[in-house]
Design goal:
Helix content is about 25%, strand content about 20%. By secondary structure, it is of the alpha+beta class. It folds into 2 domains: about 5-135, MutM-like, N-terminal (N-terminal domain of MutM-like DNA repair proteins), CATH 3.20.190; about 150-270, Orthogonal Bundle (Helicase, Ruva Protein, domain 3). The strands form 3 sheets. It has a 4-stranded antiparallel sheet, with no helix packed on it. A 4-stranded antiparallel sheet has the order 2-3-4-8, covered by helices on one side. Helix 1 runs parallel beside helix 6, helix 3 crosses helix 6 (about 200-220) and helix 5 crosses helix 6. The longest helix is centred in the C-terminal third of the chain and has 20 residues, at about 200-220. The chain is elongated, with a radius of gyration of 20 Å.
Length: about 280
């Protein structure tokens, strides 16, 4: 799933390529991806892209005051084309194309989604806050207001595992399964540690790991190619069975119903592999 660094890379790319261009046409190939009807998607035609921003994992194009908001979900992506095909798209079928945006100079982009489980969502709204997911977002970890003191307040008193807290978009916006693994590895912290049990030093280490991990990922994310770059820059996530680049121990995995997490026992759990995923105990 594209997370904060990849969506930020897409926003930065579109600021350079799309801002100042008018929307010539929008083709909707997957009607299920369009979550709003007022204003209609056709209202964007003839209007100019004035800015591109990010809200957590949501991409927001301001088109003369009407916002085209996109959530790429688990397997969606934005594919830029210098010359967009002019032929009309055909709805339905197994085509991964969901929405195609034509700009007035012939360029544009496709919103695509692989796999059979579809979750990509497109909203056309007058205010981004009309999108429920945006209205419920917690603070952005790259915002100046996300200070160490603010993070202490977020963590303090929460009787939840730190892995789940980092992924909760209502608590902190933009971090998902991938970068929560990376952040916890950088902070040398067990994913099952209870948030309220963190010492002041651990809170500081986790706060610094969030900022460093996300900023480094943003810097190495080159626009639409960020999806591929994401995989090459990861240290533990998706690397089960490989060597930890820090200590050389074997990266291990805990599987859940619809996801999994990866971690290094030496760096994060005192050398002991995590046991049953439901009990969250350490093997003795």
């Amino acid at each position: 799933m594209p997370e904060l660094p990849e969506v930020e890379a897409l926003a930065s790319f579109l600021r350079e390529r799309a801002v100042g261009r008018a929307v010539a046409r929008i083709d909707v190939a997957a009607v299920s991806a369009l979550k709003t009807y007022d204003p209609p998607v056709t209202a964007l035609q003839g209007l100019s892209v004035g800015g591109v921003t990010r809200h957590g994992k949501f991409l927001d194009l301001d088109v003369d005051g009407i916002h085209l908001v996109v959530h790429l979900a688990r397997s969606g992506w934005l594919r830029w084309q210098e010359q967009v095909p002019t032929r009309p798209v055909r709805p339905g079928g197994r085509n991964p194309l969901a929405v195609r945006v034509h700009l007035d100079d012939g360029s544009g982009f496709d919103l695509t989604e692989a796999g059979s489980k579809k979750g990509l969502a497109v909203y056309v709204v007058r205010d981004p806050a009309e999108v429920p997911g945006i209205a419920a977002l917690g603070p952005d970890p790259l915002d100046e207001a996300f200070t160490l003191e603010a993070f202490r307040e977020i963590v303090g008193g929460r009787r939840t595992r730190i892995k789940g807290l980092l992924r909760d978009q209502k608590v902190i916006a933009g971090i998902g399964n991938v970068y929560s693994d990376e952040v916890l590895h950088a902070a040398r912290m067990s994913p099952f540690k209870i948030a309220a049990s963190l010492s002041d030093e651990e809170v500081r280490a986790l706060y610094e790991a969030i900022g460093t991990t996300l900023r480094d990922a943003v810097e190495r994310s080159p626009g639409p190619a960020a999806g591929a770059e994401k995989k090459t820059g990861l240290r533990v996530h998706g690397r089960t069975g490989q060597k930890c680049p820090v200590c050389g121990d074997t990266v291990r995995e805990v599987s859940f119903a619809d996801s999994s997490l990866q971690y290094c026992p030496t760096c994060q759990t005192g050398g002991k592999p995590l046991a049953d995923r439901r009990l969250s105990r350490l093997l003795k």
